[in-house]
# Entry
Amino acid sequence: MPGLHHVTAISGPPQANVDFYIGRLLQRLVKKTVNFDDPGTYHLYYGNRQAEPGTILTFFPFVDAGPGRAGPGMASAVAYAVPKGGLNAWMLALAEADVAFDGPSERFGEQMISLKDPDGLRVELIETERGTGIPAAGDVPVDDGFHSVTLWLKQPDRTARLLTDLFGYASAEQASDEGGTRYRFLAQGQGRGSAIDLLTSDAPSIGRQGAGTIHHVAFRARDDDEQQAWQEALRAQGFDVTPQIDRQYFNAIYFREPGGVLFEIATDPPGFATDEPMDALGQELKLPDQHEPLRERIERVLPPITLPRGRGR
Ligand code: ZN
# Structure
Protein backbone atom coordinates (compact mmCIF):
# COMPACT_ATOMS: atom_id res chain seq x y z
CA MET A 1 0.00 0.00 0.00
CA PRO A 2 1.77 3.19 -1.16
CA GLY A 3 -0.27 5.62 0.95
CA LEU A 4 -3.20 8.00 0.86
CA HIS A 5 -5.37 8.59 -2.19
CA HIS A 6 -7.74 11.21 -0.75
CA VAL A 7 -9.36 12.44 2.43
CA THR A 8 -13.04 13.42 2.53
CA ALA A 9 -14.50 15.83 5.06
CA ILE A 10 -17.71 17.69 5.82
CA SER A 11 -17.92 21.45 5.76
CA GLY A 12 -20.49 24.18 6.20
CA PRO A 13 -21.47 26.55 3.37
CA PRO A 14 -19.12 26.19 0.39
CA GLN A 15 -17.92 29.77 -0.15
CA ALA A 16 -15.85 29.91 3.05
CA ASN A 17 -14.44 26.50 2.16
CA VAL A 18 -13.23 27.49 -1.32
CA ASP A 19 -11.93 30.82 0.00
CA PHE A 20 -9.79 28.96 2.52
CA TYR A 21 -8.48 26.02 0.48
CA ILE A 22 -7.89 27.96 -2.74
CA GLY A 23 -7.25 31.45 -1.41
CA ARG A 24 -5.22 30.55 1.68
CA LEU A 25 -3.86 27.03 1.26
CA LEU A 26 -3.31 27.55 -2.50
CA GLN A 27 -4.87 24.28 -3.53
CA ARG A 28 -6.40 23.84 -6.95
CA LEU A 29 -10.12 23.08 -7.26
CA VAL A 30 -9.74 19.96 -9.40
CA LYS A 31 -13.42 18.97 -9.54
CA LYS A 32 -16.71 20.68 -8.90
CA THR A 33 -19.41 18.02 -8.81
CA VAL A 34 -22.24 16.87 -6.52
CA ASN A 35 -22.63 14.28 -3.81
CA PHE A 36 -23.78 11.33 -5.95
CA ASP A 37 -26.13 10.16 -3.18
CA ASP A 38 -27.48 13.68 -2.51
CA PRO A 39 -27.11 15.74 -5.72
CA GLY A 40 -28.43 18.91 -4.06
CA THR A 41 -25.07 19.14 -2.27
CA TYR A 42 -21.72 19.87 -3.88
CA HIS A 43 -18.76 17.57 -3.77
CA LEU A 44 -15.66 19.76 -4.04
CA TYR A 45 -12.24 18.25 -4.72
CA TYR A 46 -9.01 20.13 -4.04
CA GLY A 47 -5.62 18.87 -5.10
CA ASN A 48 -2.33 19.79 -6.65
CA ARG A 49 -1.96 21.15 -10.17
CA GLN A 50 -1.93 17.66 -11.69
CA ALA A 51 -4.76 16.42 -9.44
CA GLU A 52 -2.62 13.48 -8.35
CA PRO A 53 -3.57 10.82 -5.80
CA GLY A 54 -2.17 11.72 -2.40
CA THR A 55 -3.01 15.42 -2.82
CA ILE A 56 -6.82 15.24 -2.93
CA LEU A 57 -8.89 16.71 -0.10
CA THR A 58 -12.63 16.62 -0.78
CA PHE A 59 -15.61 18.21 0.95
CA PHE A 60 -19.34 17.76 1.20
CA PRO A 61 -20.41 21.32 2.04
CA PHE A 62 -23.76 20.72 3.68
CA VAL A 63 -25.38 24.13 3.99
CA ASP A 64 -27.16 23.12 7.19
CA ALA A 65 -24.49 20.86 8.67
CA GLY A 66 -24.29 21.31 12.41
CA PRO A 67 -20.83 21.74 13.87
CA GLY A 68 -19.00 18.45 14.34
CA ARG A 69 -16.29 17.50 16.74
CA ALA A 70 -13.42 15.07 16.35
CA GLY A 71 -13.26 12.28 18.89
CA PRO A 72 -12.14 8.67 19.33
CA GLY A 73 -12.93 6.55 16.31
CA MET A 74 -12.46 9.43 13.87
CA ALA A 75 -9.69 10.91 11.76
CA SER A 76 -8.90 14.13 13.60
CA ALA A 77 -6.38 16.00 11.43
CA VAL A 78 -4.99 16.10 7.92
CA ALA A 79 -1.43 17.24 7.28
CA TYR A 80 0.08 18.68 4.11
CA ALA A 81 3.76 18.24 3.34
CA VAL A 82 5.89 21.35 3.01
CA PRO A 83 9.39 20.92 1.54
CA LYS A 84 12.39 21.51 3.75
CA GLY A 85 12.87 25.25 4.22
CA GLY A 86 9.36 26.10 3.10
CA LEU A 87 7.56 26.49 6.42
CA ASN A 88 8.76 30.05 7.01
CA ALA A 89 7.18 31.28 3.81
CA TRP A 90 3.90 29.65 4.84
CA MET A 91 3.97 31.28 8.26
CA LEU A 92 4.61 34.67 6.68
CA ALA A 93 1.84 34.22 4.12
CA LEU A 94 -0.68 33.06 6.73
CA ALA A 95 0.22 35.86 9.14
CA GLU A 96 -0.11 38.38 6.33
CA ALA A 97 -3.58 37.02 5.57
CA ASP A 98 -4.54 37.13 9.27
CA VAL A 99 -4.95 33.35 9.46
CA ALA A 100 -4.24 32.15 13.00
CA PHE A 101 -2.01 29.12 13.51
CA ASP A 102 -0.30 27.28 16.36
CA GLY A 103 3.43 26.70 16.25
CA PRO A 104 5.95 26.23 14.91
CA SER A 105 6.42 23.09 16.95
CA GLU A 106 8.22 19.81 16.42
CA ARG A 107 6.77 16.34 15.84
CA PHE A 108 9.09 13.38 15.31
CA GLY A 109 11.93 15.74 14.36
CA GLU A 110 9.93 17.73 11.80
CA GLN A 111 8.82 21.35 12.10
CA MET A 112 5.12 21.99 11.77
CA ILE A 113 2.28 24.42 12.27
CA SER A 114 -1.35 23.66 12.93
CA LEU A 115 -4.40 25.66 11.90
CA LYS A 116 -8.13 25.28 11.65
CA ASP A 117 -10.21 25.68 8.51
CA PRO A 118 -13.38 27.84 8.68
CA ASP A 119 -15.38 24.89 10.09
CA GLY A 120 -12.76 23.93 12.67
CA LEU A 121 -11.12 21.05 10.79
CA ARG A 122 -7.53 20.70 11.96
CA VAL A 123 -5.07 21.16 9.10
CA GLU A 124 -1.35 20.78 9.68
CA LEU A 125 1.59 21.86 7.53
CA ILE A 126 4.66 19.73 8.20
CA GLU A 127 8.11 20.43 6.83
CA THR A 128 9.56 17.18 5.59
CA GLU A 129 12.26 15.63 3.45
CA ARG A 130 9.95 12.81 2.44
CA GLY A 131 7.65 13.03 -0.51
CA THR A 132 7.89 14.70 -3.86
CA GLY A 133 8.04 18.37 -3.00
CA ILE A 134 9.26 20.95 -5.46
CA PRO A 135 12.12 23.04 -4.07
CA ALA A 136 10.92 25.83 -1.82
CA ALA A 137 13.40 28.65 -2.49
CA GLY A 138 11.32 31.09 -0.49
CA ASP A 139 8.26 30.21 -2.52
CA VAL A 140 5.04 28.70 -1.19
CA PRO A 141 4.55 25.47 -3.09
CA VAL A 142 1.16 24.00 -3.83
CA ASP A 143 2.07 20.65 -5.31
CA ASP A 144 3.21 18.60 -2.37
CA GLY A 145 0.05 16.92 -1.23
CA PHE A 146 -0.37 15.04 2.00
CA HIS A 147 2.14 14.31 4.69
CA SER A 148 -0.16 12.28 6.95
CA VAL A 149 -3.49 11.92 8.64
CA THR A 150 -4.07 11.46 12.34
CA LEU A 151 -6.57 8.85 13.54
CA TRP A 152 -7.83 9.42 17.07
CA LEU A 153 -8.41 5.99 18.60
CA LYS A 154 -9.41 4.62 21.96
CA GLN A 155 -7.12 1.69 21.48
CA PRO A 156 -4.63 1.54 18.62
CA ASP A 157 -3.51 -2.12 18.61
CA ARG A 158 -5.84 -3.64 16.05
CA THR A 159 -5.61 -0.65 13.72
CA ALA A 160 -1.83 -0.84 14.00
CA ARG A 161 -1.95 -4.52 13.05
CA LEU A 162 -4.06 -3.74 9.98
CA LEU A 163 -1.49 -1.14 8.89
CA THR A 164 1.53 -3.34 9.49
CA ASP A 165 0.36 -6.88 8.75
CA LEU A 166 -1.95 -6.18 5.81
CA PHE A 167 -0.99 -2.79 4.36
CA GLY A 168 2.76 -3.29 4.86
CA TYR A 169 3.37 -0.12 6.85
CA ALA A 170 6.32 0.02 9.23
CA SER A 171 5.92 1.10 12.82
CA ALA A 172 8.24 4.11 12.87
CA GLU A 173 7.98 6.39 15.88
CA GLN A 174 6.17 6.82 19.14
CA ALA A 175 5.92 9.73 21.55
CA SER A 176 3.91 10.33 24.67
CA ASP A 177 2.95 13.42 26.57
CA GLU A 178 0.47 13.99 29.40
CA GLY A 179 -2.45 13.88 26.97
CA GLY A 180 -1.77 10.54 25.32
CA THR A 181 0.47 8.76 22.85
CA ARG A 182 1.10 9.26 19.12
CA TYR A 183 2.26 6.29 17.04
CA ARG A 184 3.57 6.84 13.51
CA PHE A 185 3.36 4.29 10.71
CA LEU A 186 5.04 4.69 7.34
CA ALA A 187 4.18 3.07 4.04
CA GLN A 188 6.91 1.43 2.03
CA GLY A 189 8.57 3.88 -0.33
CA GLN A 190 7.76 6.74 2.03
CA GLY A 191 6.42 8.89 -0.78
CA ARG A 192 3.56 11.35 -0.79
CA GLY A 193 0.92 10.74 1.88
CA SER A 194 2.78 7.77 3.31
CA ALA A 195 2.37 8.47 7.04
CA ILE A 196 -0.50 7.50 9.31
CA ASP A 197 -0.47 8.63 12.93
CA LEU A 198 -2.53 6.83 15.53
CA LEU A 199 -3.29 9.05 18.49
CA THR A 200 -4.65 7.91 21.83
CA SER A 201 -5.86 10.52 24.22
CA ASP A 202 -6.97 10.46 27.84
CA ALA A 203 -9.18 13.48 27.19
CA PRO A 204 -12.78 12.39 27.63
CA SER A 205 -14.46 13.22 24.36
CA ILE A 206 -17.21 11.93 22.18
CA GLY A 207 -16.84 12.70 18.51
CA ARG A 208 -19.72 13.92 16.43
CA GLN A 209 -19.73 13.82 12.64
CA GLY A 210 -20.59 17.26 11.28
CA ALA A 211 -19.03 20.34 9.74
CA GLY A 212 -15.29 20.42 10.33
CA THR A 213 -14.84 16.66 10.67
CA ILE A 214 -13.26 14.06 8.43
CA HIS A 215 -15.70 11.53 7.00
CA HIS A 216 -13.28 8.95 5.63
CA VAL A 217 -9.70 8.28 4.64
CA ALA A 218 -8.93 6.70 1.26
CA PHE A 219 -5.87 4.64 0.36
CA ARG A 220 -4.54 3.91 -3.12
CA ALA A 221 -4.88 0.98 -5.46
CA ARG A 222 -3.07 1.12 -8.80
CA ASP A 223 -5.95 -0.45 -10.71
CA ASP A 224 -9.09 -2.58 -10.38
CA ASP A 225 -7.12 -5.81 -10.06
CA GLU A 226 -5.09 -4.51 -7.16
CA GLN A 227 -8.23 -3.18 -5.54
CA GLN A 228 -9.90 -6.55 -5.89
CA ALA A 229 -6.92 -8.21 -4.27
CA TRP A 230 -7.29 -5.84 -1.30
CA GLN A 231 -10.99 -6.59 -1.14
CA GLU A 232 -10.31 -10.32 -0.98
CA ALA A 233 -7.49 -9.97 1.54
CA LEU A 234 -9.61 -7.75 3.80
CA ARG A 235 -12.61 -10.07 3.58
CA ALA A 236 -10.37 -13.01 4.43
CA GLN A 237 -9.46 -11.13 7.63
CA GLY A 238 -13.13 -10.74 8.49
CA PHE A 239 -13.63 -7.13 7.38
CA ASP A 240 -17.02 -6.18 5.99
CA VAL A 241 -15.98 -4.65 2.65
CA THR A 242 -18.43 -3.08 0.19
CA PRO A 243 -18.62 -4.11 -3.45
CA GLN A 244 -16.79 -1.84 -5.87
CA ILE A 245 -18.59 1.51 -6.33
CA ASP A 246 -18.06 3.75 -9.38
CA ARG A 247 -17.15 7.24 -8.16
CA GLN A 248 -16.58 8.58 -11.68
CA TYR A 249 -12.94 9.64 -11.03
CA PHE A 250 -11.96 6.41 -9.29
CA ASN A 251 -13.52 3.13 -8.21
CA ALA A 252 -14.01 2.72 -4.48
CA ILE A 253 -14.43 0.03 -1.85
CA TYR A 254 -15.14 0.89 1.78
CA PHE A 255 -14.75 -0.80 5.14
CA ARG A 256 -14.66 0.22 8.78
CA GLU A 257 -11.22 -0.23 10.36
CA PRO A 258 -11.10 -1.76 13.86
CA GLY A 259 -10.83 1.60 15.61
CA GLY A 260 -14.01 2.88 13.96
CA VAL A 261 -12.66 5.08 11.15
CA LEU A 262 -14.22 4.59 7.71
CA PHE A 263 -11.49 3.51 5.29
CA GLU A 264 -11.72 3.45 1.51
CA ILE A 265 -9.43 2.01 -1.14
CA ALA A 266 -9.66 4.04 -4.35
CA THR A 267 -8.12 3.30 -7.73
CA ASP A 268 -5.71 5.79 -9.31
CA PRO A 269 -7.49 5.57 -12.69
CA PRO A 270 -9.35 7.07 -14.41
CA GLY A 271 -8.47 10.30 -12.60
CA PHE A 272 -9.89 13.80 -12.77
CA ALA A 273 -9.22 14.55 -16.44
CA THR A 274 -11.73 11.91 -17.48
CA ASP A 275 -14.57 14.38 -18.11
CA GLU A 276 -12.82 17.74 -18.66
CA PRO A 277 -9.36 18.81 -19.84
CA MET A 278 -6.54 18.90 -17.28
CA ASP A 279 -6.02 22.65 -17.78
CA ALA A 280 -9.72 23.39 -17.12
CA LEU A 281 -10.33 21.18 -14.07
CA GLY A 282 -12.87 22.51 -11.59
CA GLN A 283 -14.21 25.33 -13.77
CA GLU A 284 -17.59 23.81 -14.60
CA LEU A 285 -20.09 21.79 -12.63
CA LYS A 286 -19.60 18.17 -13.70
CA LEU A 287 -22.38 15.65 -13.22
CA PRO A 288 -22.29 11.89 -13.68
CA ASP A 289 -24.55 10.54 -16.42
CA GLN A 290 -27.30 9.50 -14.02
CA HIS A 291 -27.71 13.09 -12.75
CA GLU A 292 -27.21 14.95 -16.06
CA PRO A 293 -30.98 14.97 -16.87
CA LEU A 294 -31.51 16.89 -13.59
CA ARG A 295 -28.83 19.49 -14.30
CA GLU A 296 -31.16 22.46 -14.46
CA ARG A 297 -32.79 21.62 -11.15
CA ILE A 298 -29.47 20.80 -9.49
CA GLU A 299 -27.95 24.11 -10.62
CA ARG A 300 -30.92 26.00 -9.19
CA VAL A 301 -30.53 24.33 -5.80
CA LEU A 302 -26.74 24.58 -5.41
CA PRO A 303 -25.49 27.82 -3.84
CA PRO A 304 -23.34 29.85 -6.25
CA ILE A 305 -19.58 29.78 -5.62
CA THR A 306 -17.09 32.49 -6.56
CA LEU A 307 -13.61 31.07 -6.96
CA PRO A 308 -10.96 33.24 -5.30
CA ARG A 309 -7.68 33.92 -6.97
CA GLY A 310 -5.19 31.30 -5.87
CA ARG A 311 -1.79 30.33 -7.12
CA GLY A 312 -2.98 26.79 -7.60
CA ARG A 313 -5.29 27.68 -10.45
ZN1 ZN B 1 -13.71 8.78 -0.74
